[in-house]
Amino acid sequence: MRKRVLYFVYGIRKAVQNCIWLGLVLTAWHYMFDKAVETERSNEFLSTMNKVMVCMLVGTLLWLVKTLMVKVLASSFHVSTFFDRIQESLYNQYVIETLSGPPLVEIRNHQEEEDRTMAEIWRLQNAGATLPPELKNPNFQPTKSGKMSGNAGGGLPPRPSKGVSFRVSSQLSKNQDEQGIPIDKLHKLNHKNVSAWNMKRLMKIVKNGVLTTLDERVLDSSQEDETLTQIRSEYEAISAARKIFRNVAKPRAKLIYLEDLMRFLQEEEALKTLQLVEGSVESEKISKASLKNWVVNAFVERRALALTLNDTKTAVKKLHQMVNVIVGAVILLIWLVILEIATSKFLLYISSQVVVFAFLFGNTCRTIFEAIIFVFVMHPFDVGDRCEIDDVQMIVEEMNILTTVFLRFDNQKIIYPNVTLATRPINNYYRSPDMGDAVDFAFHMATPAEKIAVMKQRIIRSDYWYPGTTIVLMNLENLQILKMSVWLRHRMNHQNMGERWRRRALLVEEMVKIFKELDIEYRLYPLDINIREMPPLNSSRMPSSWTSPPCN
C-alpha cells in the first residue's frame, strides 16, 4: 500500500506542490486584503488579482485530477494487459541466467551437509571419542549459529556469493537503478497485489534490459564485459542454449533430466521449467532441440514485449496530450467565467462555434474516440502477434492510436485504420491455446483391417502432440476410396507458423514411412468390364493424324 501511494504521489508531486503553494498564497491573500477589498469597492486591481489567484488554484486542481486519472488508468491498463507476459518473460530470464551459471543449489546443499558433518565431528571430538587422524582438523570451529568456519580442504566449490542468480535482471550491472527484483518476490506478485511502482520497475526491466547468461569468466574477471553474456539475436540464443545444455546435462548425456535441473533450481522451479520447455512434466527430461527452441522463443518474446511496451508508452503519451488539450480548454472556459468575461453573448458565441466545430470535425472526433477504445479497451493484439484478418495472416509490426501496421508473409507492410479493425473479426494466434491440426489421406477399401489397426497405433509422436491423437474415417468414394483424417493437438499454438508446418511435415514423413513398411498404397485394382458389342474387325476408321490406311 505504501508503494502504491508513493508511486502516485511521486508522479503528481509537482501538481500537489503547486496546489499547496497556491492554497497558502490565496489564504494569506484572503486574510491580508479581503477587508481592504470589501471597504474599497472601487479598487479593481485587488479584486482582479483575487480572481486571478482563484483561477490559478482551480486550474491547478483540475490539472492534478487529470494527471491522477491518467496515471491510474495507465497503470490499470498495463497491469491487466502486460503483467502475465512480463512475469513469464522475467522468469524465463531468471531460468536462463541460473542454468548458465554455477549449480548454486547443489553447492548450497553440499555446504550445508559439510557443516552438519563437521559439527557432528566436533561434537564427537569434544565428547572424547576416538577419531581417525584424517577427520581431525583444528581449522574448524563452531560459530554461534551452529555452522562450522574454516576450510575443510575437501575440494568443494566455494560458498555461493549472496544474491548471485537469485535476482532477476542484470547481475553484472554496476548501476544501482538497474538492479532487478528478487525471484521470490516475483513469484508472489499477481494482478491484485502488484503495485504501480513495482509494475513500472518490471516494465523498465523488460524495455531497457536484454536476456543474459551468467559466464563465470565474466563474473570472476575484474573488467566486466556485458557483451559476452547478452543475447541480442537468435544466433546468440542458439549458442546460449548449447552452453546451457553442456552446463546442466551430465557429461556425454543427450538429455537433461529433472535431477540435473534440481542442481540449479528448487524443485517447484525445476518442474515449472520442464513445463515451459517440454510442454509437460510427464517425461521429466529435456532434449537439446526443445531447449534450443525454448531459448529462441524466450528471446523473440522478450523482444516483441519490449517493442509492445514502447509502442504502448508512445500511445499513452499521445492520449495524454489529447487529454491535456481538452482539460486546457475546460480550464480556459472556467477562467473566463470566474473573471466574468464570459457574458451571455460570449457564451452564445462560443456555443455557436462549438456547433460549427462539431459539424466540421465531429466525424474525426468520433473516429479518434473509437480508435482509443479499440487500442486501450478492446486491445485485441500486441506487437509481434500473428493475426488473421480477412483470411490473410499478418504479424503486428507497430501500434498507434489511429492506425496499426502489419507485416504480411511476404514482408509487405499493410496499414489498417483502427476504426476499420474494430469492425472486423480478428483471429489472434498468439493468444490462442495449444491448437489442433489435421492431416488427410486416402487408400483403397481393399486394404486389410489389420494393417489399418497397426497404422493407427504407430501414428503418434508424443514429443509434439498431446496424447489421444484421433484417426477417423471421413468418407467413402465410389465404393473404392477410403478417406481418413488424423486429428491431433499441437503442444503449441500457431504463432510460429514455420514450426507448425515443420512438425506437421514430420508427421507426414512418419506416415509415409509407416505406409511403406505396411505396404499400404493407393493402386488401381482390376475392374470387371462387361462388353456387350464390338465393332467389326475390318474397320475403315483411322486416327485423324493418319494420312492413309495402315498397310496390312
Automatic annotation (TrEMBL):
Database matches in InterPro entries: LSM_dom_sf, MscS-like_plants/fungi, MscS_beta-dom_sf, MscS_channel_2nd
Subcellular location: Membrane
Superkingdom: Eukaryota
Gene Ontology CC, one term: plasma membrane
Protein name: Mechanosensitive ion channel protein 8
Keywords: Ion channel, Ion transport, Membrane, Transmembrane, Transmembrane helix, Transport
Residue ranges of the region described as Disordered: 132-165
Organism: Sesamum radiatum
Chief place where the protein resides: membrane
UniProt entry tagged with the keyword Transmembrane: yes
Similarity section: Belongs to the MscS (TC 1.A.23) family.
Residue span, Mechanosensitive ion channel MscS domain: 373-430
